Amino acid sequence: MQKMPDTDIQLEGYSDRRGDEDTNMALSSERLVSVRNELVRAGIDESRIHMNAFGEQQFASRPGELEAYTFDRRVVIRFDYLTPASKSPVALTESASAL
Fold this sequence. Notes:
CATH 3.30.1330.60; 4-stranded mixed beta sheet; 4 strands
């Protein structure tokens, strides 16, 4: 990331479908903070990290598939290359990690 100063990181946090909406939003936010803290500890400037919590949206599992709920509890990491002139994203790469 130090060699790519025009790249920002977008973090999207999710939870599984169990629990109420407020609790799930809080869980997805906690996941985001954990990932952000690790990235900052690794030397990435916090101003380059942007976060959005989505709670129980965009499931990977079907209702009742308890083992598959693991895939709903995740943080998606996107790398946005910003053109120096416009500072708008021109490319996205996606990676996911479950917490």
